[in-house]
Amino acid sequence: MGTISRRGLGLAGAVAGAGAAGVGAAVGLRHIAVGRVRLRPDPDAGEPFGELRGEVVPVEADDGVPLHVEVDGPEDAPLTVVFGHGYTLNQDSWHYQRRDLRGSLRMVFWDQRSHGRSGRSDPERATIEQTGEDLRAVLEATVPPDHPVVLAGHSMGGMSIMALADRRPELFERQVKGVALVNTSCGDMAEMTLGLPLALAKLVRPLAPRTLRGLGRRAELVERARGLGADLAFVVTRKMAFADPHVSPTVVGFLEEMIRGTPIDVIAEFYPALIAHDKEACLGVLGSVPTLILAGGQDRLTPAVHSRRMAQALPDAELVEVDEAGHVLPLEYPGVITGGLRRLIESVHPGAGGAKNTGGTKNTGGTKGVKGVKGRRSPRKRPRYDEEERTA
Questions:
Q1: Strand positions, DSSP E, the chain
Q2: What is the pTM of this model?
Q3: Is residue 181 part of a domain?
Q4: Helix (H, G, I), strand (E, B) or coil at 278
Q5: From start to end residue, where is composition biased (Basic residues) (predicted)?
């Protein structure tokens, strides 16, 4: 019995040793691969990500949570654009749009509760309905009642717009004159596959909420571990958030930094709200104003089918689908977003969008790789993109 145990232990040790060697080799290869990516020529290496700031306006949510809000641009501008960011990010995710629209527009950027520089929320208030009310508070604090507004929302930011439409439909048309929905969804988030085979996704989905709750309860330990896995985090962020093989390593690193800056317990608190999100019924409210819907053809988190579904419910909306794009169009294809916003603003208030039109037109032929349609699906083709369309 003792001999068998020793042999068993020896075998276990050998297996463990081989496993450790394999893991070590994998880590080494991953480190080399990440190093190669980061050594590529990077036109965005000197971009001042996270450094563009505006005038801070104190805003308090209806439950007392302080919201970090910044106003950028001339006070006498004829129109204001309010930007809402996505889950685990902050207002700096709109970096390129802030940079390229400065001077011609009045812009409001805000950090959603528990994200960025905003205050922490009670866990039970980590809901999409609450972020919609937070958006209302931001509007009331930063925009006069008779001043026209365009709302732009990425991912969870788009869901906040839908929640506002659900709770405060009277604001639309009266004050909100246009809406841009980027990489977002009106519901059925529980069906997302994260790019996994369907059978595997069905196994993983039920485990995610429980796993995140467990990680949230061990937040301090998890945060230390997150700091140690920089190379792995870079690889996962690049794989999950982007589709363009030429995406800037600096952009990937910037996105990963924003995600890492969001505490794991905040990620755990908001996850159930995303899965439960269902605002298809309020899309009719958005139909009263010009609406632009932008999707990534290879988005693993809110697949393009979600955007097509919204476009079918909004026959007058403009749908732009970028084939070789993932979940963060504002960073991956900023010119497409900025150009789309200019078109939307121009349709709402002629002359307010500025003269420059970057990164997209309504018609497919005008912009390589960008499928632009109005109220219908576009042809399934995958042309290449010009460099000028990847950057604003």
A1: 55-60, 66-72, 80-84, 106-110, 149-154, 176-182, 291-296, 318-322, 370-374
A2: 0.79
A3: yes
A4: strand
A5: 371-383
Q: How buried is 310 (Cβ within 10 angstroms: 0-12 exposed, 13-18 middle, 19+ buried)?
A: buried
| Residue span of the structural domain in which 299 resides | 65-191+268-354+366-373
CA separation for the pair 90, 98 (Å, rounded): 13
CA-closest candidate to residue 135, choices 154, 112, 115, 107 = 112
Q: What type of residue sits at position 251?
A: V
- The CATH number for 349's domain is 3.40.50.1820
Q: Considering the domain boundaries, does residue 114 fall inside one?
A: yes
Residue 392 lies in a domain: no
Total domains in the chain come to 1
User: Is residue 320, in this structure, part of any structural domain at all?
Assistant: yes
Give the closest residue to 263 by CA, choosing from 113, 74, 73.
Answer: 113
Q: Are 132 and 166 in contact (CB under 8 A)?
A: yes
